[in-house]
Specification:
heterodimer; A: 112 residues; mainly alpha; 4 helices; 77% helix; 0% strand; elongated; B: 186 residues; 10 helices
Chain lengths: 112, 186
């Protein structure tokens, strides 16, 4: 071991005593500034989120209600009751969209 | 939440760390109060510049405040803080110009137990290359083993060993007067 115990003792003797209060005050001033900045950031984000919700709520709600009205609409009119009920899951705008998405996915997988 | 200063002053460090992790400002202030001298002395020995040392110590405490939630074991606050401080110093070293050391503010010393010794020790440390100085400071100021220093600094163990051997020799020469006095008194 290349450590000299006498040199180690000198290091211990040479420890300085600093102005503690000023340093603690400076560090805590930085901490407080950071806390304020974080608080303002969250406040800003909350206001932005509330504004976005307020602005987008009406169009999103309208789109959703339109979708719920449009999705179950039959693609082909079938006169016979039992046949209409049997084909109902396939015979709708929702089913057409689902089949379209599945086909598109299959196609993309094949070409990529 | 506000605690009485006396209560915080009497609390074990692990309790203060736990409180500070939850955002308690006063508990963190008490941690800074308890650890500032140690970290500032460490930084002072590493960088040889009183102003820079205090800036780095402040940075270390700020980083600790930001990352306290990441500290897994509250009982390991001191080594964790030391690692943050040394990393701050290493990052500063990588960023700064190698000639910056020429303007080191070695003379501006605050109150100290042994002013002449502290200044001579700083002067002797200033003659060492930065890596060697860091190894010496960690070995003598922090009493870390070669293996710990190698792990801490990322230097190969052999390099750490030779830095400490050569640095010890230089310091022994530079501080011979003090070492002789120590020998006489013991």
């Amino acid at each position: 071991m290349s450590i000299d115990p006498k040199l180690q003792a000198l290091f211990a003797q040479a420890r300085r005593v600093f102005d503690r209060d000023a340093f603690v005050r400076d560090v805590m001033a930085l901490v407080d500034r950071e806390r304020r900045r974080t608080l303002w950031m969250w406040a800003g984000l909350s206001v932005a989120a509330i504004a976005a919700l307020a602005l987008l709520a009406t169009p999103v709600f309208a789109a959703l209600s339109m979708a719920t009205q449009l999705l179950p609409v039959s693609l082909v009119e079938i006169e016979t009751d039992w046949l209409r009920q049997l084909l109902a899951p396939m015979n709708s705008v929702a089913a057409a969209i689902a089949i379209g998405v599945l086909l598109l996915r299959k196609f993309l997988r094949r070409i990529l | 939440m506000r605690h009485s200063t006396d209560l915080l002053a009497k609390s074990p460090e692990a309790v203060l760390v736990g409180l500070a992790r939850g955002g308690d400002r006063d508990a963190f202030a008490e941690l800074v109060r308890r650890r500032e001298a140690w970290i500032r002395n460490l930084m002072r020995r590493c960088c040889q510049d009183a102003t820079l040392a205090d800036d780095l110590a402040q940075q270390a405490f700020m980083q600790a405040w930001r990352s306290l939630r990441q500290l897994q074991d509250v009982a390991r606050f001191a080594p964790w803080l030391k690692r943050i401080a040394i990393t701050a110093w290493l990052q500063h070293k990588r960023r700064s110009d190698p000639l910056d050391g020429a303007s080191a503010d070695v003379g501006a010393a605050p109150a100290e137990a042994s002013p002449a010794l502290a200044m001579d020790l700083d002067r002797a440390l200033a003659t060492l290359a930065e890596d060697a100085r860091l190894c010496i400071v960690l070995a003598y100021h922090e009493r870390m083993t070669h293996g710990e220093i190698a792990e801490f600094t990322g230097l190969p163990p052999g390099t750490v060993k030779s830095h400490i051997r050569r640095g010890t020799g230089k310091l022994q020469q530079a501080l011979a007067a003090y070492l002789d006095t120590t020998e006489e008194t013991t």
